Hints:
The protein is mostly beta strands and 181 residues long.
Amino acid sequence: LAENYFVELRFDHEVTDRTYAYSSGGWIRSRFAGVENRWTGAVGMGVKLLASDQASFDVDLGATVASEDRISGETESFGGRRLTWEYKRQVTQTAEFVSRLVVDENLSDTEDLRAGFDNSIGVAISSVLALKTGLKILFDNQPALEEVDLFDAPGGTNIGTVFTPLSELDTQITVSLVVSL
């Protein structure tokens, strides 16, 4: 069964009018990408490059820790760095466009680079709830492995299994219920 779940919590603390510190934590299960569980934590600093009533653009850089359990049975824990930018635009009084790019690099293996590019429109249902639809593009330079059946050429008889990498690029259409406290 292919499933994809995630939870992310983030806390921002304003240091000056234009700078902020942040901490975040998250959990992902993405069977499409071969990930059973990925736990992440991050801390960092950011700068507000644009801040108005109609739009904002923030960029931040942070340090991360991650622990990942892949469906193939591999487990890996590592430290890394994260670059994030986020653009928000108030489209109407109740609708907001958000474009967010997150790039994570594993410092133990710099070829292990992941990126997520998420573009969405959220519509407020109440002061606390919003419905958000979007397009998410995910890149993983070292994707998880998938076990597939191996057949011999002449008769097509199953002779075992082999591991092959999953796709580096995933595209998802998302629908989310957003709770803002």
